[in-house]
């Protein structure tokens, strides 16, 4: 009895979770409309998404491949995060015109700055094409044959689909390959920077506050999408005109209160909500701790140099932020997995699954083996997965020298395969990247990280997975420090001029130079070792996991009929909804749902690189000059949290109110809830949004760019129903 109630307790959250989920917009009416209405939604599912007529979806785009953006004016004005626009802002900046530090606001259209390479992708329509995609796919087919059949089917669909010449067709697998959807998209390529606050507002709190609530960051920037005279995508041209979207979002300054309905519409990147306990346990026990340990070392070393040397400080800000973002998220993930008892919950869920399967002859025949096999394969693959992650973190994600050398391997292969035209065509792309890369590269910093991590790697993997190779090289050189110094300082990959000269060589001389380069040769030997001793086992087991996970997903949906299943995030357009709500991260600790400008001032540290503030903001705060953006009790709201289920890629997504007005801009999650990628728990998972009123306040009052508000639709003073 005691066991049973414990089981029910653990099972409850996974079977009947209140909210959570990233839903497919095409099926909102069927799956979500009733629930959304019960939570407060005032418009119809059909207003959110419609293939035939304009709907809210037409205001949402994927920004620059990895973030979300939205239209907030009939003239293509686009809102996204500061951290999403950051690359563009940095690239447009010079020492004299430093938009990162000082911000930027175009006073008119002619001052809008073309952000080269930045794209905005809109979904024109989407269709469920599962039946066609899986035609002639038989159960028991080898994975490779299955994929070949699907590819053939998709090719056929592509040929038969009507679309305009400027549109694209995308296919995506859902539910681990049990369903397929087609997207007709339009990608706009002339995107221009309209404005950004200085980093002291847009990145306020930087890495210290990243993933943390309470938060005080004005994480937004603004662009404009341009089109040709027919409103179609076109490469940059001074003759292009502002894009006219089929829908744009009105912005409400009426504010929010706890319990209000909110909806986030965007392009979440990746989640894994339906894994077996064994996989979650692997992440919690081994993969996350390994990543954290490696990045802990890298960050400490980089930080040491950043503190000593202002030059390193500027050069490594972006690299540091990149490493720290994952490092911090994974720590939160481990904590959250433990706190939410994810592994136990999944085990209870699996016990119920097994029980139901055992009691149904058909299911028993079809699915009886799936979980035991998944557990077996996870046990087999575990050491290889850990080593592969160790390898990637050590020699790829935290090692600039070897990653750059590896990035040049395709050029070498082109020459080796006689594709000289391709080689010549590709070279300029490589050359273009040199200046920006080496502006921020400091060999002594990279070398110090390399030495530390290489030694760690040698001491944590099996002899044949690279430990022997590394130990031998280190012995010969006189230690890891000496080894990595030799590699870094004797390589062309640590010097812009030398690499540039090598790129200028004719094909044969180029490949000779590559082969002679110590860093490239070292990377090659590591990589050959990896291909020989690690890769084959991964290549053997990974497809088995793919197949089993697909079967397990299918089985879960059949066996738990009472549960609604949303598909894992896959960088496609999704809707998630919830309510504005605070939370309790720990015993006796309670977090409110909203922060304000007074809180920004509490964190203010003059001169600090994370918590400094511009004088103008201090002045506005002193005078309480908040205009229409103030709360009735005279505060200026900055950020708020809600129970929307979001992930990476949702950055820049609009948060909408019950009527479809923009009330906030999604940019992060709370630390205690980052395990929502694996196990969403409504008790502690919250998304973090900048309040729309803070955004407008910064544009209008702080930056004096109020002219932009004239093309927006500001909703105010409506009775809140
Ligand atoms: N944590 C947010 C995300 O995952 C923001 C990252 C950018 N900010 C930073 N301080 N690194 O993308
Ligand atoms: N900052 C993330 C992004 O760039 C969003 C935060 C999250 O992972 O939820 O998409």
The low-confidence runs, each spanning 5 or more residues with pLDDT under 50, are none
Outline: globular
Work out the number of β strands. 20
Share of helix among residues?
40-55%
Write the CATH architecture name of the domain at 2-119 and 189-272 and 566-715. Beta Barrel
Question: What gyration radius follows from the Cα positions, in whole Å?
Answer: 26 Å
Identify the CATH class of the domain at 2-119 and 189-272 and 566-715. Answer: Mainly Beta
* Main sheet makeup: 11 strands, antiparallel
The total count of helices amounts to 28
CATH topology name of the domain at 2-119 and 189-272 and 566-715, in short, is Thrombin, subunit H
Structural class: alpha+beta
Overall average residue pLDDT:
95
Q: Percent of residues in beta strands?
A: 5-15%
Distance between the termini: 46 Å
Bound molecules: arginine, glutamic acid
Describe the structure.
By secondary structure, this protein is of the alpha+beta class. It has a domain at 2-119 and 189-272 and 566-715: Thrombin, subunit H (Beta Barrel). Helices cover 48% and strands 14% of the residues. It is built from 28 helices and 20 strands. Strands 1, 2, 3, 4, 5, 6, 7, 8, 9, 10 and 11 form an eleven-stranded antiparallel sheet that branches. A seven-stranded antiparallel sheet has the order 14-13-17-18-19-16-15. It has a two-stranded parallel ribbon with strand order 12-20. A hairpin with a 4-residue loop joins strand 7 (168-174) and strand 8 (179-188). Helix 1 (2-15) crosses helix 13 (342-358) and helix 17 packs across helix 23 (507-516). The chain is globular. It starts with a helix and ends in a 6-residue tail after the last strand. The mean pLDDT is 95. The structure holds arginine (ARG) and glutamic acid (GLU). Arginine (ARG) binds at residues 83, 206-207, 210-211, 321, 325, 648, 651, 668.
